[in-house]
Amino acid sequence: MPEKTAPTIRPFSPADEHRWRALFRAYREFYELPESEEVVSRVWGWLMDPRHECEALVAEVDGEVVGFAHLRRFSSPYDGTTGLFLDDLFTDPAARGRGVGRALIGRLTEMAAAEGRSVVQWETAADNFQAQALYDTLATRTSWVTYEAEPAPPAPRRPPSPTG
């Protein structure tokens, strides 16, 4: 049986656009997000802007990009440290089981160590059991629960009463 080629992890580049777009669309489909070329193009723009906080790594196997990791740095007032946050991780379904996710997360932990950061953090969907099986071998599952609130305009101000 032929030996599987180990993934190569490298920084994202403009030459990755076509393949990244295909993988990012598949990622959005996996999470049942609406199709949106506007979002795909906006994120591409972020990744191409060296001033934007979002960055990406890609995984290659036999010269083909088969996965990506989107990341950003963050500060944690909670414990006075800084870390890397893994926003998105995706592997082409045809390349799963070849160590792509493990290699991408491994590279992130190496980056965090080289930069003197305290942690690499990420979250996944509660029903993404396949990903959790990998993550449980690489990191500690926390007890934190994530919440999201919709932005809301400030409440209207009442004019001061004439009696003060």
TrEMBL record:
Residues 7-164 form the N-acetyltransferase domain. GO terms for cellular component: ribosome. PROSITE patterns: GNAT (PS51186). InterPro entries: Acyl_CoA_acyltransferase (IPR016181), Bact_Acetyltransf (IPR050832), GNAT_dom (IPR000182). Keywords: Acyltransferase, Ribonucleoprotein, Ribosomal protein, Transferase. Gene3D superfamilies: 3.40.630.30. Pfam families: Acetyltransf_1 (PF00583). The keyword DNA-binding does not apply. It comes from the Bacteria. Signal peptide: none annotated. GO terms for molecular function: acyltransferase activity, transferring groups other than amino-acyl groups. This is Ribosomal protein S18 acetylase RimI. It comes from Microterricola viridarii.
